[in-house]
Amino acid sequence: MSTLYQIGEVCQRTGLTQRALHYYDEIGLLVPSERLNGGQRLYSAPDVERIERIKNLKQLLGLSLSEIKRLLDADEARDRHLAAAETTADPSRRRRAVESALHVTEDQLQSVREKVHRLSQLQRQLERQVRDLRRLTSQAVSPRLPEKIGGRP
Question: Which whole number is the average pLDDT over 84-108?
Answer without folding.
Answer: 95
